[in-house]
C-alpha cells in the first residue's frame, strides 16, 4: 500500500513541478523541447511500477533521456549559431556591396573627366567580422580602374614611321604607376579615407 501512495505522490509532485517550469519558461522553441522531455519523464514515472516488475532502472532511463536531450539541445544551439553567422555574413556582404555602389557613383563623373577612367571593381578589407563600423574598421580598399573604351575608340592615331624603342614598356609602366598614384590620391580625398589605405590597379598596367 505504501508503494502505491509513494507512486501517486511522486506523480502529483512531478505534475506540479512541470506546471511551475512551464509557467517560468519564456515562449520560445526551447519550451516545446522542454515539454517533450517533461512528458517522457512523466510517462516513466507513471509506468515505474510496471518497470520495476521487469527490473528496469527508472533513474537510469531518466538519465539517458536527459543525456540525449542535452545532446539534442547542443545540436540545436550549434545550428542556431551557424545560421546567425550566415545571416551576419550576408548582411556584411550586402552592406559592403551597397557601399561600393555609392562610392563608385560619387566619383564616376569626375574620375572620367579628370583621368578618363571608370571603376571596374572595389574590394574592402575589414578589421573585424561583426559590428564593424564605417569608415573606422576599413583597413584597406583595392580599386580596379580601366581607361574608357569610348574615348579610346574615338581617337584616330596618325601614321608615324616605325621605330623600335626598347624603353617603351618601361615608359608605359611608369605612366600607369603615376596614373594609379594620382587616382588613389583623388579617391582618398573624395571618400575621406587615408591615402595609404587605397591601392589602385589600372587595367593594362603591370
Automatic annotation (TrEMBL):
Cross-referenced Pfam families: Spore_III_AF
Q: Which domain of life is it from?
A: Bacteria
Mind telling me which residue stretches traverse the membrane in this protein? 7-27, 33-54
Q: Which UniProt keywords apply?
A: Membrane, Transmembrane, Transmembrane helix
NCBIfam families, per this entry? spore_III_AF
* Name of the protein in question: Stage III sporulation protein AF
Q: Which organism is this entry from? A: [Anoxybacillus] calidus
Source organism phylogeny: Bacteria, Bacillati, Bacillota, Bacilli, Bacillales
